[in-house]
Specification:
The complex is a heterodimer of chains A (332) and B (383).
Chain A: H1 3-33, H2 41-78, E1 81-82, E2 88-89, H3 93-99, H4 102-132, H5 139-147, H6 154-165, H7 177-184, H8 199-225, H9 229-237, H10 242-253, H11 255-270, H12 274-279, H13 289-299, H14 303-331
Antiparallel strand pairs in A: 1-2
Helix pairs in contact in A: 1-2, 2-14, 3-14, 4-8, 4-11, 5-8, 6-8, 8-11, 9-10, 13-14
Chain B: H1 9-36, H2 41-46, H3 49-52, E1 56-63, E2 71-73, E3 76-82, H4 83-87, E4 93-98, E5 107-108, E6 112-114, E7 120-123, E8 128-133, E9 144-151, H5 158-165, H6 172-203, H7 209-220, H8 228-237, H9 244-268, H10 272-280, H11 285-296, H12 298-314, H13 317-322, H14 333-343, H15 348-368, H16 370-381
Antiparallel strand pairs in B: 1-9, 2-3, 3-8, 4-5, 4-9, 6-7, 7-8
Helix pairs in contact in B: 5-15, 6-9, 6-12, 7-9, 9-12, 10-11, 12-15, 12-16, 14-15
Chain lengths: 332, 383
């Protein structure tokens, strides 16, 4: 069958299946299992209402359990086994292998670097953009242009930035704007930005910062709008300058939002894969955990060590997960 | 608000200028690629894209036609033609020219150069030239003419034609439809499943509700990297292996936490009276959901649909793992572009165009539906 036709069928089957499931399961519940008539009408209504939420939740819970919760446990189990020995239990061997692999430490170091730089820079630029565009007439256009990279795929962004970083031999015209600017500012020869160990990490991070700044800006700009006008007016009357207003009046009032933005970007950073995969594939010491894991799983076919690496990512996400859950529970 | 105390003109100007610089910085990389996708391979390699929007001055050498093309006008032997046309170049404007590499700008356009017994050559600004001599021209090769010409900006749609429609077009057209095939079911199906669950979590009272919400919030941040191998094993064991069905299911599963979370947050905010009135009037929960909740939740549904669409369209990892098999028939655009980056890393005209084909759809969605996207972002992360 043609894939497009298959797609249409999937939409039809999926949608009608969902609607049909919800509709008929409710009918079965109300009419047959606990009919709201006869001598037990009252009790039956109550019982039906106890069951009904689970009817509504059932498909979602199955999907969540199967596609997200079960894999966490299964990955943990796989990280303790060896595929080449037919899945035999090997204890912490995979973790030992992981910790003895210099590539892993390189990936971990780079990931920590990413974690330090990207959320900080994205939030800072986002805050700056939100503040700058807050009161100007063309602010909305400016915002939507800075926000635009959010819609671009990591792979698309990788192509865009590869062109920025392109290097040509010294005696020819440069087509990468970074080298053109570098030479115009007095640089002596075009640089291969992506193959300079250590610094190339920052050139890869620039891509993610470029994408995430728009996200930070949108959320922070809504928060800045929410800062009560009176506090700003009072500061102005007291003679505060614009910088003082920004850092001492506005920022403290939106600090909660800044933290949320920071953690959201942190999670994105931990999962970053496409950018490194497409731009350097971990060469020149730019490996990150997600790409390292992909390498182990699908290129080396080593499920044990790959799963162990995945568990390390999970471990890094864990504090944020706990923090989020606690916050959510506090609200209820 | 603009004239309140403390808003000095200098500050306003500084703000405007910094905002403009920031916007330009953020826009430049994309614009560079967009412009490059409209230039030919030679143009891209020849000069930076930022130069292409201005007329370019270039120095080139073109040979006039050879003795074989000469005609006779009375006593004169004449060779005529247009320098740009005979080389198949774009029309330019000649400011200076010469006949020797040591003096390439010896004459201005319209002037006549006397080359002694070799003849008299005149070149016009538009490239027309006339070479005349009293005796017959000889020699196999034509006279060399060095030009300093200014050619106007020149853009072409050929790259798009090649990438999308030609046979050797690197499979982008096929990949485009494959991506679409992945995206649409993977956007629609999670919405329905999530909407029902979100309604239960928002408006039905039952034991364990708080725990379930916490469960969903926790799953929001679980890296999908963990799911790759276990799910691939699962798909293989139930016999769907790699393919569309697998990728639809995977995207559905991965999109659900955000969908449930967004929709629940929105539904909780709907007015309580409407729902309770409907209950009193004897509406079943199913009717309330279909007739009241769904229509009222449209903005949140739209927000999530956009997120999910952008995410599935732009995804590479899930496609790589669950969809693309060794035949390569089911390749998606992001995969195709990373392949091109590897195999044709220097062919910017193909890369830029392929990337823009892939980017264009999300960008269109972004610009037309920005309102919902922003609303969704705000609902999804600010608490």
């Amino acid at each position: 069958m043609h894939p497009a036709l298959q797609g249409l069928m999937m939409i039809f089957v999926g949608v009608s299946g969902c609607v049909g499931y919800f509709y008929f399961s409710n009918i079965v519940l109300d009419k047959f299992i606990f009919p709201a008539k006869g001598e037990h009408a009252g009790r039956n209504i109550n019982r039906a209402n106890l069951v009904r939420p689970w009817l509504f939740l059932f498909p979602a819970l199955i999907a969540l359990g199967l596609y997200l919760a079960y894999p966490v446990i299964e990955t943990f189990r796989l990280s303790l086994t060896d595929r080449s020995q037919g899945g035999a239990f090997v204890g912490a061997d995979n973790y030992a292998a992981l910790f003895n692999d210099p590539k892993f430490w390189e990936a971990l170091r780079n990931n920590l670097l990413w974690l330090l730089v990207v959320p900080a820079m994205s939030t800072a630029f986002g805050l700056l953009a939100a503040q700058l565009t807050d009161r100007i007439k063309w602010g909305n256009i400016a915002k939507s242009l800075i926000f635009m990279p959010m819609a671009i795929s990591f792979v698309g962004a990788a192509v865009i930035w590869k062109l920025v970083y392109d290097a040509r031999p010294i005696d020819t015209n440069q087509i990468g704007i970074l080298n053109a600017v570098y030479l115009a500012l007095g640089g002596d020869e075009p640089q291969q930005w992506l193959s300079k160990p250590f610094w190339n990490n920052f050139f890869l991070m620039a891509v993610l910062i470029w994408i995430q700044t728009g996200f930070a800006m949108v959320i922070l700009s809504a928060a800045i709008r929410g800062v009560p006008e009176e506090t700003i007016e009072a500061a102005i009357i007291d003679g505060a300058n614009p910088f003082q207003i920004f850092f001492k009046i506005k920022v403290p009032q939106i600090i909660g939002t800044i933290v949320v933005v920071w953690t959201t970007i942190t999670i994105t950073v931990l999962k970053v894969f496409d950018i490194v995969f497409a731009m350097t594939n971990g060469q020149w010491e730019t490996q990150v955990l997600a790409n390292y894991m992909y390498d182990k799983l699908f290129r080396a076919g080593d499920w044990g060590v790959g799963s162990a690496a995945a568990m390390i990512i999970m471990l890094l996400v864990m504090p944020i997960l706990v923090w989020n859950v606690r916050n959510a529970r506090k609200e209820m | 608000m603009d004239n309140i105390a403390g808003r000095k003109p200098a500050v306003v100007w500084a703000t405007q200028i910094s905002a403009a610089v920031l916007v330009i910085l953020w826009l430049l990389p994309t614009v560079g690629l967009l412009i490059s996708s409209f230039r030919s391979a030679d143009q891209i390699a020849g000069s930076g894209w930022w130069q292409s929007i201005f007329p370019q001055e270039q120095n080139i050498m073109i040979r006039a036609k050879s003795a074989a093309d000469q005609t006779q006008e009375g006593a004169l032997y004449v060779i005529e033609g247009n320098l740009f046309e005979q080389e198949g170049l774009d029309q330019g404007e000649i400011s200076a020219w010469g006949t020797s590499s040591r003096a390439i700008a010896a004459y201005t356009s319209g002037q006549t150069a006397d080359l002694g017994n070799k003849g008299r050559l005149s070149v016009q600004a538009n490239g027309d030239y006339r070479f005349e001599n009293n005796s017959e021209f000889s020699g196999k090769r034509g006279q060399r003419v060095f030009l300093t010409s200014v050619s106007p900006p020149n853009f072409t749609l050929d790259n798009y034609k090649n990438v999308l429609f030609s046979d050797g077009g690197d499979g982008m057209a096929k990949a485009f439809f494959n991506t679409l095939t992945v995206t649409i079911p993977a956007t629609i199906i999670p919405i329905l499943i999530a909407a029902f669950a979100a309604y239960a979590l928002a408006w039905m009272d039952f034991k364990g509700r708080a725990l379930l919400i916490a469960f969903v919030v926790g799953l929001l941040v679980v890296p999908l990297q963990l799911a790759l191998i276990p799910l691939l094993k699962f798909h293989n064991s139930i016999g769907i292996g790699k393919g569309y069905l697998g990728v639809w299911m995977a995207h559905t599963g991965f999109g659900l936490p955000l969908a449930i979370y967004l929709l629940r947050n929105y539904m909780v905010g709907l007015p309580k009276d409407i729902i309770e009135n409907a209950r009193v009037d004897g509406a079943t929960e199913f009717q309330i959901f279909i007739k009241i909740i769904l229509p009222l939740s449209f903005p949140a549904l739209a927000s999530f649909a956009i997120f999910q669409f952008l995410w599935t369209w732009n995804d590479l990892l899930v496609g790589l793992v669950f969809l693309i098999d060794s035949t390569g028939d089911t390749t998606i655009m992001t995969r195709q572009i990373t392949e091109l980056l590897g195999s044709r890393g220097g062919n910017w005209e193909i890369l830029a165009t392929a990337a823009f084909v892939s980017i264009s759809v999300p960008l269109a969605v972004f610009f037309f539906m920005q309102k919902y996207l922003v609303r969704g972002l705000l609902a999804g992360s600010v608490k």
